[in-house]
């Protein structure tokens, strides 16, 4: 509960053995840390501080999954850790898929989609989510995002908006 969190009675550190790829403990820790920072609880609260320590350990892993990197980039953006945020965004930039004037991220090893003239398939939920977290990481910057980041963000937003279904929603549950 929020009162326990404010009093520092809750501790988060679900990081166990970090061996690369999508690590459920790291992902869950990142989700919870993001939620706490969005409350907003300051980074000085022990529960947030402990969670960020776990995430810093996770961020140092060489083989993090692109989805994990996107979550970590946003968590560090919210925490005001510009160095970690930038390092993760730089790493994500190398894995970006650039197509038709837009940018997005996809799961490693995914087969390229065939270019069909009249059929536009929508990306799976995880790809919409991870690309959205990268967008949030670009836009969550103290001070305000630089022009270069806003330019990158607009290319990401273009891809996300292209993923809307006819009712205006997305395949993502996030």
TrEMBL record:
Residues 100-118 have a biased composition (Basic and acidic residues). This is PZP protein. One of its GO terms (cellular component) is extracellular space. Residues 100-123 are annotated as: Disordered. The gene is Pzp. The lineage of its organism: Eukaryota, Metazoa, Chordata, Craniata, Vertebrata. SUPFAM superfamilies: Terpenoid cyclases/Protein prenyltransferases. It holds the Pfam family TED_complement. It comes from the Eukaryota. Transmembrane segments: none annotated. InterPro entries: A2M/Complement_sys (IPR050473), Alpha-macroglobulin_TED (IPR011626), Terpenoid_cyclase/PrenylTrfase (IPR008930). Residues 16-174 form the Alpha-macroglobulin-like TED domain.
